[in-house]
Amino acid sequence: MTSLSPQSPVSGVSRIRVGSAPDSWGVWFPDDPAQVPWQRFLDEVAQSGYEWIELGPYGYLPTDPVLLTEETSKRGLKVSAGTVFTGLHHGEAVWEKTWAHVADNAVLAQAMGAKHLVVIPSFWRDDKSGEVLEPDTLTPEQWRNLTSLTERLGKEVRERYGLQIVVHPHADTHIDSEENVVRFLDGTDSDLVSLCLDTGHYAYCGGDSVKLIETYGERIGYLHLKQVDPEILADVRANQVPFGPAVARGVMCEPPTGVPALGPVLEAAQKLDVDLFAIVEQDMYPCEPDAPLPIAQRTRAFLRSCGA
């Protein structure tokens, strides 16, 4: 595994803007009867004390920026980012289809005043069924496709929409472990590609978020705050449980009951001397409709106790 060596300390203090996302309300899909209506999500995220949200799956929230601006503004909410899914390791053959998906999301994110687009790599096994879709490791050619096309995506998204892409390491994708995250960072231009560090996914895949922030701090453009239950995770790993079923088992848990400890993560992020969004994402699909609100309220109070 590639080792991480600490970078020089950086003076100054970051400004952390805390928010939440549809994911914390059990929302994984644009339309699903198991999910709460978008109006209820907006009501409850505001009630929980958050000011910032992500757009979630494209089509879950209204895609008309006039309507969405009206609905968010009257609740005191602002949008930090949109989210897109990509399979750029497949090469030029997927570029046009990928760009069409990205453009829809980028147009809405830009219209809502967001500055970021969270980019999630495609899964190598289906997150619902667990069906293996392709090998879990990339060939050298696929790595070249992934890095070069991600740079192209970063350049074009910035030039056309004024947004910064932040690539999200994710369980059951090819950017997951410390080894693969470091390989991806070392293979991409820091001016074009930043990272959305999801503390839960990185722990799920064996990584140390504080270590990554201290080593690659200049590449951390965005945070997702999340924890994993170590006991459930141990069983998930031992039995090679796919991510979707693992979430249904509760592998992503309410802070501060899991790992990593979020206080040290936020402390490390504060030392970067940059503005950062830290968006809470507790994967809970599927979940009872009354479950998210009290969890969100307790999580917001906990983060305040950590100084965020």
TrEMBL record:
Keywords: Lyase. InterPro entries: IolE/XylAMocC-like, Xyl_isomerase-like_sf, Xyl_isomerase-like_TIM-brl. Its EC number is 4.2.1.44. Residues 42-305 form the Xylose isomerase-like TIM barrel domain. Pfam families: AP_endonuc_2. One of its GO terms (molecular function) is myo-inosose-2 dehydratase activity. It is an enzyme of class 4 (lyase). Coiled coil: none annotated. The keyword Lyase applies. This is Inosose dehydratase. It comes from Streptomyces rishiriensis.
